[in-house]
## 1
Amino acid sequence: MLEDLLILIRHDLGGILRVRNVKGKRSKKRSLFRNSLRYIAAITVAVVVLWGIISMVQLLGWSFFQSAIIDGIDFGATLFNFIVIVSFMGSIAVSVSTVANSSRMEYLMCMPVSLRTLFLEKTIVVIFYNALIYMIIGTPVVIGLAVSSTAPYALLSIPTFLVMLIVNVTLGVALGGLIGLTISRFLAGRRRLKQIGWFLGTSVSIIIGTLYYYSLFASDSGLAGFFAVFLQFAQQIGLSSDFSPGGAMNAVTIRPIVGLPINLVDILLAVLFLLISIMLIYANAIVSETAHYSGWLASGSKRSSKTEVKIAHSVWNPSDIPLLKMSTTTSVSMWYNTTSVRREGRVLANYLVGPMRTVLWFFLIFLAPGGSLAGIAPFIIISAMIPFAVSYGVYFAGYELVYEGKNLMNLQLAPASLTDYVKGKVFSAVPFTAIATGLASVLVVFVQPSLWIYIPAVIISSIFLTLASGGIASYSAATGGDFKAQRNITRQRGAAVQMPIRGTWAMARAHLLPNMIGFMGVGAILGLGIFLNPLFSYLVVPLFALICVQIMRSYIGKSGRKLQTIEASDYL
Amino acid sequence: MIEAVALTKQFSEFIAVDSLSFHVNPGEIYGLLGPNGSGKSTTMKMLLGLLKPTAGSARINGFDVQQHTVEAKRSMGYVPEEPVLPERLTGWEYINYVSDIWRVPRGVERDKEIDDLLTLLDIKDASDDLIETYSKGMSRKISLVAALIHNPKILILDEVQAGIDPRGAATIKEILVGLRDRGNTILMSTHILEIAERMCGRIGIINHGKMIAEGTMDELRTKAKGQQSLEDIFLDLTGGPDMQKIAEFLGE
């Protein structure tokens, strides 16, 4: 089994990590620099981080760092638990997606390798992707601190960091995968119920994952009051940070750097989590094998070639909505996009609730001080709407455009404007932003009733921000999208391991630009209202809306033109 | 030898394969025919151990597929109906990947074997290209190379000649006939009935998951009461085109 596993991993990664062009004449050639760009970027980041850490230690002295780390030693546990939670939340659908798309692995499945080995290898690849970003940033930090440290066993923390990082990511990915498979088992053969179950299961997992992390992060103070029930529950079942995977990682990684003693219990705990991660990943492979072989994921079918059953399909026509005039192409695109996402429960849940992960990343710094910043809680909630509004635009217009894949090639032949088609995708995100911001507004009014006056302004701004975000994302999709993403197990819809937009700049543009616009715009709207007069907020809203609409128009125009000229070979 | 005994596969309420029994002897090419959706590919997937039968059993080279899946697979080569291959590998890399898993010893001999097969099937020139650039026919040819590289005793081929140029199709035919003469066991499905008629020693026709006729061409002719060609026999057993609807469509 191990030999098979190594062969599979070697060839799988060999194709993905290729730097040199292949010799064949039919394949596209790119410069060595372009092929190596991601490695150069990763190495540059690692070197800069390492240099920064060593320089800071030289500047401020090791004793300063040592005491700072010792004072905030628990912070490490929280940070490492974050890795587990994020890996978990991103992996709920991974195993099910892998099994559901196993027809793409038929060429491997017919070979003399057990199915569990194949699924194990795919999970290892997913773990590799999940761990990569933490490895690139975390390893130079640990190396920098370890080489600067005066503690006798500081260098030991480098291998323990790498091992425990893999352990923590494995725990998250394997657990997420197992939960996903369990949901699919309970709902096997019931298509509608399965979609509802997937939606609820994925949403609850993301929410609980976020709250669990938040509870570990915020401890007993300040903002934790919002989630007192969950906190209490977490404590009751023993999920305090010391006995968590992050706690164990912190104990064997950070403590040696600053010369703090490591207890035997800490070592045993780290070994225990290592064993649990191995057990979980193996269990994941066994359950995946059973799920595939027994056909849990095959949806119920009543096919019949004998009887003719005429089905009348109802089609929602968005342009029937009063005051909403749009072309037939835009209307059809909006209907199709909404229907297509709605039919896949786990995709819908990932799209709707998934931005919580982004919010967590963005507001880590604000959540850290706990109680001392409780006063700005309503503003944090308002600001959290921005990543939601942006993400909906990115998902519905950017990602979904890429996932259309081959269908876009057919649309090139259709007598329809691709710009109008893209516009429909952007519009399809708007109702979701309206609902999400509406719900968040209720929370804001509940926490800080005096802010009610800004709520309509924020909801309207968020809706227009979604339009801008969707426009930008659609252009990123057209320029950097992998239109064959659905064929790649780690990149397909709902997998959330690799993004369907591959180009580095395209990805950065899709995520960063609209967030910057959102934070600046909504910041200005709130700032003017709070410091001058609420009236000023409402004077700025139309201007912000106009800017967003112009951004959307400009980008969807460019996106439509680009999509019209993409060669068929990029889709096929 | 391939043996299927009362193989059944049910998806929810839909019975894809219904108590199907047949066997393929060494030195024989068996044609599994049937309309689209009749259960041919599902049957093949159960024989390959990719799907669990709802009932019945399958034995490959003496091994029960459910009990000894890996051992059963060891003697098989398979070309799927729609080969989905690792697109980020070149043809050459893919065949080497497959060869590694089959434990074909690395070295000059293996390279020569791969080279010979690629040349035979006219894809040597594209072997250094990424598979994502391959046409359907080329993907099918490279799949056949992957299926043959470990000299399997048993071959399961799902529409192997579909989408392949005439020269390639003729080459594949000659390879299969040669393998049959060497004593290999070959199960193939095809919609090109002339190929089945010319190559297959015995033919099984399935419809709605059930075996509706089985035997040599002569036996099938006897069953179909005077029909001569396999196409006539097939249409007689599974139903021909609806001429009235065609006329309506054409506006006649």
## 2
Amino acid sequence: MTRILEVSKLNKSFGGVTVAREIDFTLETGAMHCLIGPNGAGKSSFFRLLLGEHAPDSGTITFCGEDITTLRSFQRIRRGISVKFQVPGIFKALSVRQNLEVAFQHHLHGASLGDTVRRVLEFTNLTGAVTTPAGELSHGQQQWLEIGMAVGVEPKLLLLDEPTAGMSPDETRKTGDMLHDLNGRGITILAVEHDMAFVQQIAHSVTVLHMGAIFAEGSIAEMTAHPGVQEIYLGAADD
Amino acid sequence: MSSLNSPDTTARPPARRGPRKWLARLEGPQTMGHGPAFWAAAVLVILAAAAYPQFANDFTVGNVAYFMVWTFMAMGLGVVWGYGGALSFGQTAFFGLAGYGYGVVSINIGSAFGLTWLALVLAVALGGAFALLIGYFMFYGRIKGVFIGIVTLSVTLVLETFMAQTAGPQWRIGDARLNGFNGMSGMPPLTVPWPGGDILLYSGTALYYVLLAMVVLVYLGLRMLLNAPFGNVLVAIRENPERTEMLGYDIRFYQMLAFGLGGALAGLSGALYTAWGQYITPSSMGLTAAALPIVWVAVGGRRDITATLLGSLLVIAGFQSLTIYGSQYALVVMGGLLVFTVLVTPDGLVATAMDRIGRLSRKMRR
């Protein structure tokens, strides 16, 4: 398998707070991988470093063999990284259809744009809400809309920051099915998630972050059995 | 690998191309008003406007032409602020710069052979280019929110201060004296070459028709642009800039282009104003002048170009009527109108009225 993402010796601090400490991380093409860790572990900051929203103090990020460490966010997206934020990053005043059209129109036009919008509407179960202002959708539907927007840009790697936050159990299960479907279509998935049941539903492997550094990596069974991981979730590792 | 983006095999109407595609964009998600009823009403309004000079005296027609001069700046601010979400407090910088630009060029090249139109085009280009430059430094410097208002207000006040100190004879460009606080005068009005003598467009019916045609063209052009992908991205940036960038758009570039367009339209107003009155002063870039376009656009409705146009015309006409009774009184009313709009109809009086009418007509059709 080829590596889609390689992160080497990544460091980032804000004043006295270190959010990334010597992070070495690799992701194989086609993987479904989860990042877990307690609040403040640096998971979202790691995503923001991958997306170019923060510039690292040192270290490199390589995507599909290209060093993207100094690229701006939109340039990383154009190379095949896409993201779904923790708080749904949708255009609330625009209709569902307009949200999707804005998402896809820089690489699709005319009939192919309409076709893709229709397919994504079906995929995200939003066909019946096509003219609804996105701000009026339920929380779960807003999460799905953003997943639809994120996959419509034809990513190779999809970053998901707590994709099931605030969802009902049924919505969470549907979201897991959706991600398996996307992974089956060739999209590599890296998700930050707290819900361990959901992690077990979707992930092949897990990385545990703690205080900005990688604490442990392995299969879900290994991580749930790892005494250190249990301790940091209970706060004992700081003692 | 199957993909969400794979081609659809079901039969679909062919995509529109070329001019038809642009005409289709006269209607769309970013502009209010669609369907035969809207366009029939629009045609009626234009016909009524075209017939208006037949029923009014030259002085009144000239006044309405003067109102139309300002609508380009208002529509430009609507694009920058209402659609793009960047509140510019300094559209008057581009208005004034283009106004002086028209004066300098037209005084130096004269008005023969319709060269005043060249002066107009160059002045608009100057306003647009300066806006692109300011926009480049603002948006590529990641200035956002209220700081855009502060920077743009500073730019217009600096220009006003600079032009006010250009009284000495050394402040001239060719034959054109800048003339400090007293302002520049003596530039020719717009002219149309005509056998037996040029037609001068400085007041009355001829200027009225030229301006009416320009307002209609700019309005329709903006409708098409705002319903095109450019307009969709602009609105997306207003709604959620981070998400828009994370969809692969260089939002700085779009914001700069919109700001440049707004500057060019403000420049068009400035050049036409100078050609209309053959006079431009630094106070056209002052604080009061800078605040007024914000009132017009906010009161009309900044998020829809039709509301911006109609609202601006109404507010400017009202303001002019009030100034007959004293300018300070008129400014107080403008301030009150702005406060009322912000508190009661934050989307703008005209936009809210248009929205209500639209809902009512849909309800009646059902």
